[in-house]
Amino acid sequence: MNGSTEHRRLLQLWLASCDGEVSPGELAELKLALGSDRELRQLVASVAQDVSVMERYLAGGAKSNGSDRPQRAVPTSTADKSRGRQHLATAACVLAALLLGVFVGRSTRPSNGNPEVATVIEGGANPEAPAVRLTEALHCVWSESSQYWPSETVLQKGGSVELLEGFAKFDVSSADWQATLQIEGPAAVVITSEGLPALRYGKMLVSLSDQTAVDSVAIELPYARICVTPGTELGVGAFGSVCETHVFQGVANLELLWDADFEAVNSHSSSHQRIEAGTSLVHEVADGTVRNIRQGTANRGVFDTAAFMRGGPLVITQPYVEEVIQSAPFAYWRFEDATGGLIQNEMQDQYHLHVHGGVTVTGLAGNRYAYFSPDEPANGPRYLSTAEPISSALLADYCIEMWVNPSHYQTSTLTGVMVPEKRIPRRPSDFKHGLLIELGGFSGGSRLMRPKRIRYLHRSLDPDVDGASLFTSSNYAVRQWQHIVCNRIGELARVYVNGVKVGEDECATPLEEGQIAVVGQLANTRVERCFCGKIDELAIYDHALPPEEIQSHFAAAEAFHSDSPTPTSRIDRN
């Protein structure tokens, strides 16, 4: 048997192992091959590092009906998976996931009293497979779906689900241990033949109960094994060649299964790492070898909206307010009060924002903001809007400035200018938006959105007249405040994030009159593209702001406290 044929066989075996369809002997053979065959590791690693293939696959795989409600994924059978793997993009996506896929559920006991080396008890030793039950789904968009997941759904063996956006929580119960899992889209979960959940890619928050009959439970990666003790809470993220482990409570012991050419950061052996509570480790794979490992501070905000401000709070200083007022916006909403369902325009007695649905104003006095909670499903309208049209002030140059803190990667509208709808339009040609500033997630079609990018749309209401639809060159941040400015000057549209220009396009089309401002969802009649997170200091100008003025505004606000943990996630950059 030549080398290429053997590599194909091992890759097929690897694919089957992700679905839990290999025997313990085959799994041992696979691990031995990966440990000894550098070319095989390089082959798989090269596929895994093509994250763009996975993102294009995810973005194109959604069947979204525009609803913000949790949508149900169609379980994929083993036969369907085999047919689907014939498609090159799908195969590349799956292989990328396999390299850094996470597998939860094997219980371990210490070997020779050494807590850093554990002997795995194979799933067959426990005749009762764990029950995996979906307990909560918030703002979820599932791939290949048009229906909803009911609460208390039990995931079956051999099935798989792909979460494009939102948060899903699961309870996992076996005779020996219990755990709760939370995944955040984009992520994929497969239920193996042992009934165990496997995270192929994405982010997962794990909490192992301290009431267990085992010494530890293993979270396995193809090149590492993480053994966690009862009572441990940790987050694991995996995309492409990068994997992160953050321990929030308890202790995790990591054992590398692949070659490594770096020095240990906190142990006597480079193949074993002990991760204490409050710390994190980042691993990177290159050419089939673990080449880099870095220690940092554990940051729960990378994995969970419960720790929402992972980058620190936004502090609006008096110099910031004075600079904005000096720049002369015709509308400036500070979100300090919503008495009577109105958010006052600080500049004049018109263009006040009307509150619709469950939008709240919260925070400390002087630093309050509009809050679109991610902890509640958007079952009805939840937005802000002006009663009067504002587009007459935007017919030539203009600027829209705001601070934004999204709860997660999402397909949502931050703000727009549109002809108010009296009823839900039946045809896309009836949509009357002149301007949209939106966040791209993984559920919007590639013609409309780009995953993790900001979209700035400026167009005529005449469908036969071209406009501008541009996307930022870099990702927006999640659970972190950022300063966003959309500037139209002459025949150019530009986007600035944190004072830096990140997008530009030609924009010769003027806006028409008669359009109101809508904040937090696509339109006043449609519960679609609903934003989850925080918005503050929204200002609209009837003139463009020069770059130096935009940079000065950004510098005048204290976006992060020095004593707050800074974002440490590498997986969000992919």
Measured between the Cα atoms of the first and last residue, the distance is 38 Å
Give the % helix: 10-25%
Question: Helical stretch count?
Answer: 8
* Structural class assignment: alpha+beta
Strand content: 35-45%
How would the global form be characterised?
A: elongated
- Under CATH at level 1, the class of the largest domain stands as Mainly Beta
The name of the CATH topology of the largest domain is Jelly Rolls
Number of domains as seen in the coordinates: 2
CATH architecture label of the largest domain:
Sandwich
Report low-confidence residues grouped into runs of 5 or more: 47-101, 107-127, 561-568
Radius of gyration: 25 Å
Number of strands: 31
Let me know the average pLDDT: 77
Let me know the largest β-sheet: 15 strands, antiparallel
In short:
By secondary structure, the protein is α+β, with helices and mostly antiparallel strands. Helix content is 16%, strand content 37%.
List the helices and strands and how they pair.
Elements (H helix, E strand, L loop, with lengths): L2 H16 L5 H13 L1 H11 L2 H11 L16 H7 L3 H12 L2 E10 L2 E7 L10 E12 L10 E2 L5 E14 L4 E14 L5 E12 L7 E6 L2 E5 L4 E7 L2 E8 L1 E6 L15 E5 L2 E8 L2 E9 L20 H9 L4 E3 L8 E2 L9 E4 L3 E3 L6 E4 L10 E4 L11 E9 L5 E7 L14 E7 L14 E5 L9 E4 L10 E8 L2 E6 L2 E7 L9 E4 L13 E9 L5 H10 L18
Helix pairs in contact: 1-2, 3-6, 4-6, 7-8
Please characterize this protein's 3D structure.
The protein has 574 residues and is an alpha+beta fold. It has two domains: 3-302, Sandwich (Jelly Rolls), CATH 2.60.120; 318-558, Jelly Rolls (Sandwich). It is built from eight helices and 31 strands. The strands form three sheets. The protein has a 15-stranded antiparallel β-sheet that branches. Strands 16, 19, 20, 22, 27, 28, 29 and 31 form an eight-stranded antiparallel β-sheet that branches. Helix 7 (318-326) packs antiparallel against helix 8. The two termini are 38 Å apart.
